Every structure is written in C-alpha cells, then in structure tokens.
C-alpha cells in the first residue's frame, strides 16, 4: 500500500523531518509533486541538511527513493544537492531513481518567472523565482522537456526550440532595455551550468516511474508518498492565485506517481502547533504584533530555501479542517509544539467571521474576503517541560488539553507530537 505524508498549512510544517522519522518503516519514499522551492530540513548526525528535490528517505541506506513524474526538476539544483549528499557518504546510484516523465526546469523558465514577478509590481504573488510556475505551464501547454529527453540524441535541438518560445514571450514584456539585457545575461550565465548538470543527470537511474512504483506495490513493498509545499497552496483548492503550480493534496499522489486510488491507505497530515506563511497571500490568523514576532523568533521561522522571514500566527482550525477533508487525513503529526512553551496563553481560530456572520467553511476567494478570526483561548504551559519530555504522557497537562481540543475539532487523532528538531523528539500518543 501507499501511505501519504503531506503538509496541511501553507508549507514549512516540518515534513522533511517527519518523513525521515518514518522512512525506516518503508521500502520506498517517493516525491509526487513540486519543485526546488520546497526545502525539507533534516538533521543528520547533528548536521543540518536541506533537501529541495530528493526524497527525505535518502539517508536510510535500505530505502529506495523515487522522484515522481509530478515533480519539476531543475538539473542545476539537483546536481548541487546530489554533491552535498554524496559528500555525506550516501551512494545515490544505489538508492535514488528518477521517473523519465518528470519535467525539467530550464534557464529560460527562471527568466520567465523573474519577468512575470517584475511585471506584477505590488501585486506579485511571492514566487521563489525558481522557474517552477513556467515549467508547469509548459507541461500543461505540451511544450515541456522531460528527464527522458536528456537521453535522446536531439535533446539540444529540443532545448533550443523551447528557449526560442520563451524568448518570444520575454520580448512581449514592456521592460526597459536595461532589464531586458539583464534577463538575457541571466539566461546566458545559467546555460553553462545547466548543460553541465544535464550531463550529470544522464548518469543517474532514470526509470519508467509508473511501472517502477507499481512493480514495488505488486511485490508487497511499503511506499510513503512525500508531498512538498502545503495543502493551502494547492493549485485548485488553495488560496488562489497565491498558490503553487501543482496538486499538493493526496489526490496528487495518483497522477504524480502513476498509482491507482485503491493503493492509498493512511494519509498522514503534518501541521505546526501554530501557523506560518512565506510570501504574499491571505493569512487569516497572522499576527502583526509582538506576539507574531515572538513566534518567529522562538520558532526560528525563516525559509529553508530562501531565508525569507515567515509570517506567523496562531493555528487556524478552519483551514486545517478544510485540508483534512480534501485529503481524507487519517492521522495528524503536530510539529514545533515546544515553540509554544514560551507563551502564557495560546489561541486557536475556530471560525471565520465574515460580514457579521460566523462560518467554518473556507471562502471561495479568501484574499478578497474580509475575515475576522474567532479565537478560542487555551492556558499555556509556559515552561520547558514540553521540549524536555521524552514520552507523550510527560507533556504538560495544558499542552495535552490543547492537543485534545485540536483532535475534537478536526475529528482526526493527533498520533504524533514533535517537540524539537531531533529524530528522538517525536512523541507518539499511543492511544490516539
């Protein structure tokens, strides 16, 4: 069977660490969507490692890792990532495989991303400028290059044709001559590194991903599908247009790996004990005060990929209930609970007030809706007991009450609570 692990908020929920924790129980870890804007942070022998494309099971030597067709892969980022992992003693030729249908990000995709954001001015969506949106646009527009194409003799011709298309698009922007020259220079500088990375990519294990994964299923192997970004960034159901370009919910597993729905078993949703968001877009529970700053400082809330400070607020149970419904979440993992040790009171949003009426439903266009959060106050635990606890039952009573309130609202058990960055700081609630 395939278990799914995905983020339920706007990303940065700590999925990488949780996948790493579970990885030893699975034969295969597979990424099913997203691009290198995802940063999954792991701590390996005390050393911080950030993965952008490679699945988070890569440090388990008996685990196979698959980059699925739903991912968009930047060969340059991928090679840099591989170099770092190889330096840590991991033999990627043995445990990393790439689906041949995975689409490739080329230098002019990054240029288009930059141009698009520049043209929007104050209305920019907060793209990480990695070229991910334009790569997915070429995928749906049936113009894209795929990993399998790097093995073809006419790859350079295919690349040139796609680049020419992009140059026509770039010419349509009403930019100054200086900006146009800067973008052209960017592409030229990125290309040498790109083709070097493509040569490296050719040496990797490129497989027919859908047959590869289904053969593992037929052989009785246990598979964990790893999501990137968060459910509220889903291209269909997220806070559109401030979303990513792929399906970040459990339905994306089927199309992103080539497996049928009948194979999906557990859906493990990851949520912080509070809430964060990077970039632009609506965020109903955001705190623009000293409490928000304190959450950022206590949680070290800066992007793993970009270093950008994250926007911070209390947990949004309306949004969580929505994403649990969309993905059929069967169990929850609550991360960074120890961050709340520093607060005398903690809060949860239990409803939205819109035009004087309370609702627990997600509005159609959240960024154009005036939302006032309805708060439920909880007594804080205000000590370091949570961070020091080695078992769930050792957690402060107030914290366990907070966890229970989340469970009761969502009607989904909180199976695990993470109270620190280490693998040994994930506590299982055995009766959940």
Automatic annotation (TrEMBL):
Give one GO biological process term: IMP metabolic process
Tell me which residues bind Mg(2+).
Answer: 12, 39
NCBIfam families, sorted = PRK01117.1, purA
Cofactor annotation: Mg(2+)
Matching CDD domains, A to Z?
Answer: AdSS
Source organism lineage? Answer: Bacteria, Pseudomonadati, Bacteroidota, Chitinophagia, Chitinophagales
Chain positions recorded as substrate binding sites: 304-310
Tell me what this protein is called. Adenylosuccinate synthetase
According to its UniProt record, this protein's enzyme class is ligase
- What are the catalytic residues? 12, 40, 139
Q: Which domain of life is it from?
A: Bacteria
Which compartment or compartments is the protein found in? Answer: Cytoplasm
| MF-aspect GO terms | adenylosuccinate synthase activity; GTP binding; magnesium ion binding
The record's family statement is: Belongs to the adenylosuccinate synthetase family.
The free-text function statement in the UniProt record for this protein reads: Plays an important role in the de novo pathway of purine nucleotide biosynthesis. Catalyzes the first committed step in the biosynthesis of AMP from IMP.
Complex and partners = Homodimer.
């Amino acid at each position: 069977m395939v278990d799914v692990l995905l983020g339920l908020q706007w990303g940065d929920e700590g999925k990488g660490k949780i996948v790493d924790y579970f990885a030893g129980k699975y034969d295969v870890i597979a990424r099913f969507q997203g691009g290198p804007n995802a940063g999954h942070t792991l701590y390996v022998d005390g050393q911080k490692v950030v993965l952008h494309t490679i699945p988070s099971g890569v440090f388990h030597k008996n685990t196979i890792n698959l980059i699925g067709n739903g991912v968009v892969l930047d060969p340059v980022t991928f090679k840099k990532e591989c170099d770092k992992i190889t330096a840590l003693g991991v033999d990627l030729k043995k445990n990393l495989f790439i689906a041949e249908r995975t689409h490739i990000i080329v230098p002019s995709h990054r240029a288009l991303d930059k141009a698009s954001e520049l043209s929007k001015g104050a209305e920019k969506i907060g793209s990480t400028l990695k070229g991910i949106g334009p790569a997915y646009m070429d995928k749906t527009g049936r113009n894209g290059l795929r990993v399998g194409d790097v093995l073809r003799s006419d790859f350079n011709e295919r690349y040139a044709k796609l680049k020419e298309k992009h140059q026509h698009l770039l010419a349509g922007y009403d930019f100054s001559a200086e900006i146009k020259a800067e973008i052209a220079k960017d592409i030229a500088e990125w290309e040498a590194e790109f083709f070097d990375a493509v040569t490296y990519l050719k040496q990797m294990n490129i497989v027919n991903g859908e047959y590869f994964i289904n053969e593992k299923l037929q052989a009785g192997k246990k598979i964990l599908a790893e999501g990137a970004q968060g459910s509220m960034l889903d291209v269909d159901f997220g806070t559109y247009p401030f979303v990513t370009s792929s399906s970040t919910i459990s339905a994306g597993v089927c199309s992103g790996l080539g497996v049928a729905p009948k194979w999906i078993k557990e859906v493990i949703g990851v949520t912080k004990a509070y809430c964060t968001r990077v970039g632009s877009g609506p965020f109903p529970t955001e705190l623009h005060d000293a409490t928000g700053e304190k959450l950022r400082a206590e949680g070290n809330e800066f992007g793993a990929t970009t270093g950008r400070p994250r926007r911070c607020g209390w947990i949004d149970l309306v949004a969580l209930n929505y994403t649990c419904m969309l993905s059929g979440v069967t169990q929850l993992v609550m991360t960074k609970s120890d961050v709340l040790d520093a607060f005398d009171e903690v809060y949860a949003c239990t409803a939205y007030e819109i035009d004087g009426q309370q609702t627990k439903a997600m509005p159609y266009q959240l960024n154009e809706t005036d939302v006032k959060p309805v708060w439920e106050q909880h007594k804080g635990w205000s000590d370091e007991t949570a961070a020091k606890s080695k078992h769930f039952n050792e957690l402060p009573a107030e914290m366990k009450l907070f966890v229970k309130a989340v469970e009761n609202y969502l009607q989904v058990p909180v199976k695990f609570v993470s109270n620190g960055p280490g693998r040994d700081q994930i506590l299982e609630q055995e009766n959940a």
